[in-house]
Amino acid sequence: MAGRADSTVLAGARVVLPTGTVDNGRVIVEGGRIAGSATRDARTVDLTGHWVVPGFVDMHNHGGGGASFTSGTVEEVLTGVRTHREHGTTTLVASTVTGEMDFLIERAGILSELVQQGDLAGIHFEGPFISPCRKGAHSESLLRDPDPAEVRKLMDAAHGTAKMFTLATELPGGIESVHLLAEHGVIAAIGHTDATYEQTVEAIEAGATVATHLFNAMPGLGHRAPGPIAALLEDERVTVELINDGTHLHPAALELAYHHAGAARVALITDAMDAAGFGDGRYQLGPLAVEVKDGVARLVEGGSIAGSTLTLDTAFRRAVTIDRIPVDDVVRSISANPARLLGVYDEVGSLEPGKDADLVVLDEEFVLRGVMRKGEWIIEPGIG
Ligand SMILES: [Zn+2]
Q1: Do 199 and 231 touch, CB atoms closer than 8 A?
Q2: Co-location of 260 and 371 in the same domain
Q3: 308 C-alpha to center of ligand 1: Å?
Q4: Are residue 223 and residue 290 in the same domain, yes or no?
Q5: For the chain, how far is it from start to end, CA to CA, in angstroms?
Q6: Is residue 133 part of a domain?
Q7: Mean pLDDT across the chain, nearest whole number?
Q8: The domain containing residue 47 runs over which residues?
Q9: Where does the record place the catalytic residues (predicted)?
Q10: Three-state secondary structure readout of 201-255
Q11: 244 CA distance to ligand 1 centroid (A)?
Q12: How far is Cα 217 from Cα 336, in angstroms, rounded to an integer?
């Protein structure tokens, strides 16, 4: 197979393992997986002066490479997947945006086939069960209260590949929907919400375990009305998503979340739309027109931020070089934590023997130099 070495030893790099970073470490790749020991004819790649970290896991992503997961053809969805792989994301969940129920059911069918083929790791339904007060880049006329029967319809249409629903849990039917999702092992994520602190606590008690892009599309942190942010940050059962593109969050907000929740409860996501890895211009986000200028996506009408153009290699580099988060902590929140939440940590999310050989090579400035997925170079480092 092109680009695939059956037995390869990556030598000389700083390797980030679940137990910590090993200087001058070795990662052995065999048959697409990480192996415990090398065979004699193994090819050695010298990665001195580089980092080797696990492949990134993005649990919230709407597209890239000019293609949309919400509306694109199968070919276009695969273009988006490939674009994000080239930026280090070796495991990716496709997120939809608010649309008509029939349309979302149709999309669930298309995307679920790509999950079954191994191109995607699952589907995240963001909307339509969200708050009109915090709609962000979702079509207001198509929003609706969470209805467990409709949630079930979407789950059924996804044939077991639905991994997460973002809900405004304070709306009628919200708590019942959280119960339903939790019973089926699907993540109930609180987001695009106008909930109070107390309503958020109630949703967490009901089984919600993720905060969809914490800080964005929810009330701010107030000292008399702490709102969802305080409830989501303080509860150990909740993982908080953060969009680290420098537009969605001030570095101090990101640091606050890391500090308060701890690295074990942060998931770095992109919330990317089509322009990620592609460029400025006019795009569609579901039914809404978006203008991307200088890498910032905004609705043409109203100017709301409309997803990001972020890729996870940039999120990683920012976290280390601008936000000063320790590398081990960034690795946890960009690989291990989302992999655990998605139920795929046995296969991916850390560099351990037996797991898929999904890894990213970074240089000393944390610029991406190589990506391997299942033992195959997506981008082969031009070194060694
Ligand atoms: Zn999103």
Answers
A1: no
A2: no
A3: 9
A4: yes
A5: 21
A6: yes
A7: 95
A8: 7-54+349-379
A9: 271
A10: HHHHHHCCCEECCCCCCCCCCCCCCCHHHHHHHHCCCCEEEEECCCCCCCHHHHH
A11: 13
A12: 26
| 2 domain residue, yes or no | no
User: What does the block give as tokens for 156?
Assistant: 């059924």
Q: Is the pLDDT of residue 70 over 80?
A: yes
Q: Is the pLDDT of residue 155 over 60?
A: yes
Global pTM reads 0.96
184 labelled binding-site residue: no
137 labelled binding-site residue: yes
- Give the CATH number for residue 361: 2.30.40.10
Q: How far apart are CA 350 and CA 20, in angstroms?
A: 11
Q: Which residue type is seen at 245?
A: D
Report the C-alpha gap between 152 and 68 in whole angstroms: 24
Question: Is 329 in the same domain as 313?
Answer: yes
Residue 356 falls in which region: left (phi positive, over 0), alpha (psi -120 to 50) or beta: beta
Decide: 269 and 278 in contact? Cβ < 8 Å.
no
128: preceding bond cis by omega (within 30 degrees): yes
Domain count, the chain: 2
Q: Which of 293, 290, 284, 310 is nearest to 302 (CA)?
A: 290
Mark whether 26 and 61 lie in a shared domain: no
Q: 129 alpha carbon to ligand 1 midpoint, in Å?
A: 13
Q: Determine the average pLDDT of the residues in 264-290.
A: 93
Q: How many residues are there in the chain?
A: 384
pLDDT > 50? residue 145: yes
**From the CA of 22, how far away is ligand 1's center (Å)?**
35
Position 62 in a domain: yes
Q: Are residues 334 and 232 in the same domain?
A: yes
- Separation between Cα atoms, residue 284 and residue 306, nearest integer Å: 10
Question: What are the backbone dihedrals phi and psi of residue 115, each rounded to the nearest 5 degrees, phi first?
Answer: -70, -45
192 annotated binding-site participant:
yes
pLDDT for residue 61 is more than 70: yes
Predicted confidence (pLDDT) per residue in 36-46, tens digit: 888 778 899 99
Query: Would you name the residues annotated as active-site residues?
Result: 271
216 annotated as ligand-binding: yes
Q: What is the pLDDT of residue 331?
A: 98
> Are residues 162 and 300 part of one domain?
yes
- Torsional sign, CA 202, 208, 214, 216: negative
Find residue 189's DSSP bridge partners: 166, 210
